């Protein structure tokens, strides 16, 4: 854990044996450092999937899943806001009760904490601890979460598979968070809220500068301001 944050602070991260440069030189924002008291992950992948789903649901969130054996085909248009083929959302597809989880094997591809009460940095750390041990989480909805920009440094642990991220109605999008978000190089869709969304706030230049700055780091990502 300590080594990971030292690599983040230095601006480099070793991934699959290859040294990758994520962060530009200069002052580095301090990442959130949770207490390292987590138990080892379950041995089997299915147990890890179930552990993730149950943790999210038990903390007031919901998950979307697919059968573990399903082959999901992604639509070729990366700019589309539609859900990938084979990954249902809404109605019965949004699982909010552990009793509705299937008995057999499944994979969690989407997590939403939008309905969670006071989801904070410690909760974020716990969610990432559960998520980093699976390689199927592509869509993360943090709408309304009471998280700090520094907690977004934890996203580096799920960045290889994360394509959709929602940060609307949070205070997490700042200069510091841009520093961490640009490590999520596989993002195709990012939803944020800035002061531009507030009709009473006339000083939006700084926020839009940050949007433009992040867009330069993530040229293949559609950044939507809501």
Pick out its properties.
8 strands; 226 residues; alpha/beta; disordered N terminus
**Uncertain runs:** 1-25, 71-83
Tell me the span between the first and last alpha carbons. 34 Å
Quick one: how many beta strands?
A: 8
Percentage beta strand: 15-25%
Structural class: alpha/beta
Helix count, DSSP H or I runs of 4 or more residues: 5
Overall body shape? globular
Biggest β-sheet: strands ordered side by side in the sheet: 3-4-5-6-7-8
Please give the largest β-sheet: 6 strands, mixed
The proportion of residues forming helix, as a percent range, comes to 10-25%
Order of helices and strands: HEEHEEHEEHEHE
Give the oligomeric state of the chains in this entry, treating copies of one chain as homo and distinct chains as hetero: single chain
- Residue-averaged pLDDT: 79
**Gyration radius, to the nearest Å?**
17 Å
Overview in brief:
Helices cover 24% and strands 16% of the residues. It is α/β, with parallel strands linked by helices. Strands 3-4-5-6-7-8 form a six-stranded mixed beta sheet, with helices on one face.
Overall description:
With 226 residues, the protein is α/β, with parallel strands linked by helices. The protein is built from 5 helices and 8 strands, in the order H-E-E-H-E-E-H-E-E-H-E-H-E. The protein has helices at 2-10, 45-58, 121-131, 175-181, 205-217, and strands at 12-15, 18-21, 62-67, 106-112, 139-141, 164-167, 189-192, 222-225. The strands form 2 sheets. A 6-stranded mixed sheet has the order 3-4-5-6-7-8, with helices on one face. Helix 4 runs parallel beside helix 5. Mean pLDDT is 79; it is low at 1-25 and 71-83.
